[in-house]
Amino acid sequence: MAFQGRNSEPFLLKEILEKIIRQFPQKNHWDQLNIKSIWQSVMGKPIAEQTQNIYIKGDKLFVKITSSVLRQELMMQKSKIKNLINEKMNSELVKEIHFI
Question: Which domains does the chain have, with CATH numbers?
Fold first, then answer.
């Protein structure tokens, strides 16, 4: 982070905290905790209730869905879901989604 002079625009506190969090090795732990709440906010409560497990490994998101019909529907929407999650997280964290 560069020093902000008197004539420059101020940073938002949210932006500063996100930059700091990205620099620490514990970021992966933060992402693991954050992805569960983001999944529910992006996909909605009914789909979140059908989600048995969700975790990030590297740049891949693994989601275990209890309903095979729902899993198949979500597989067809992978790209859209990935974009929504990355937008919500303000980063390109997820590059692939695997429904298991």
Answer: 13-99 (3.30.300)
